[in-house]
Amino acid sequence: MALVPSSAVGSPLIAEVDMGGSDPSSTVRATVVQASTVFYDTPATLDKAERLIAEAASYGSQLVVFPEAFIGGYPRGSTFGVTIGSRSAEGKEEFRKYHAAAIDVPGPEVDRLAALAGKYKIFLVMGVIERAGYTLYCTVLFFDPQGQYLGKHRKLMPTALERIIWGFGDGSTIPVFETPIGKIGALICWENRMPLLRTALYGKGVEIYCAPTADARDVWQASMVHIALEGGCFVLSANQFCRRKDYPPPPDYVFAGAEEEPSMDSVVCAGGSVIISPSGAVLAGPNYEGEALISADLDLGEIVRAKFDFDVVGHYSRPEVLSLTVKDDPQNPVSFTSAEKTESIQK
Fold first, then answer.
1. CB–CB of 142/184 below 8 Å?
2. 341: number of CA atoms within 13 Å, CB side?
3. Beta strands at 123-132 and 63-65: parallel, antiparallel or unpaired
4. What is d(CA 63, CA 90) in angstroms, rounded to the nearest whole number?
5. Is the pTM of this model over 0.70?
6. Helix, coil or strand: residue 218
7. So where's the catalytic machinery, residue-wise (predicted)?
8. DSSP letters of 62-122?
């Protein structure tokens, strides 16, 4: 493994590249980005994303995966002024600012991300906070090297207090995209602990399984290894590395739940981004040292070799005993019959 120092601005970035001896035609160079949002400043975060994408592309990366909520921010430590039965005025104002930092899909920020994917000729998987009217969603966006927006995955089940600020995705946004570098899909953070949701991705043939997260605990690594083995796929997990100073200072932003406000240099999310092979081998990472570009060469032949041992929705399945039905129609709260009649006439 070679360690390549980065020239990027800010905290030092390290590219960790596993240089295997496999056939180059079946090898994909992938990078997971471990870096923090510029909180409440979406234009600055997009500028930072471009610097990181350019850096990864300079190493020959074909696929770049960003953390959960990189655009829009992961509001770590915030309660948004919520207690059971009440919401504070300060918390409502905090949500207004968070809502303002989110992005519309489609929208100008999506157009810029698509342009970046095209400019640097990469597949891009980006964690964002999506604004749909007045509801926010934790979302992953997918882009191809031709600068095309491919689609999105909305987090199906936000975790704990996330449910007061994010809406719930439905079965219509659980895509797996067939691309020249493999079939790419994503689940976000603790969604990856939902066996049936993972099985939905396996059923769509996912080969490069992206897992943007906000979980920096050691136990997260066990989940990532298990998914790689279970799915016979590469797992790319990207997390932010954040210090307290990466968030607005108090009293504008307060970390709740701690005995005392963290010092500005305190690490509040330690990263742990990692790339794992279908055999469960760690190819690069986990990194807990700082912001980093963590890269590896993925030998796609490893997928076939792993599936020979265990194909969870193939020769190792028993559909006559156990099966899964996924309701993948959009679930709309309001439908208009006149629109439905128009659509049926047009068809």
1. yes
2. 3
3. parallel
4. 40
5. yes
6. coil
7. 68
8. SEEEPPTTTBT---TT--TTEETTEE-HHHHHHHHHHHHHSB-SSSHHHHHHHHHHHHHT-
Element (H, E) at 203: helix 195-203
In DSSP terms, 282 is beta-bridged to 276
Give, as one character, the DSSP assignment of residue 246.
Answer: G
Give the integer Cα–Cα distance in Å for 123 and 65.
9
Q: Could you list the pLDDT tens digit for every one of the 347 residues in the chain? A: 333 334 444 444 544 544 444 565 689 999 999 999 999 999 999 999 999 999 999 999 999 999 999 999 999 999 999 999 999 999 999 999 999 999 999 999 999 999 999 999 999 999 999 999 999 999 999 999 999 999 999 999 999 999 999 999 999 999 999 999 999 999 999 999 999 999 999 999 999 999 999 999 999 999 999 999 999 999 999 999 999 999 999 888 989 877 788 899 999 999 999 999 999 999 999 999 999 999 999 999 999 999 999 999 999 999 999 999 999 999 999 989 886 665 555 55
- Respond yes or no on whether the N-terminal peptide bond of residue 175 is cis (omega within 30° of 0): no
Which residues are the active-site residues? 68
Secondary structure of residue 185 in the 3-state scheme: strand
Is the Cβ–Cβ distance between 239 and 67 less than 8 Å? yes
Contact 33, 93 (CB under 8 A): no
List % helix, strand, coil for the chain (3-state, nearest 5). 30, 25, 45
CB 112 within 8 A of CB 46: yes
Transcribe 294-347 into DSSP letters. EEEEEETHHHHHHHHH--TTTTT--TTT-------S---S---HHHHHHHHHH-
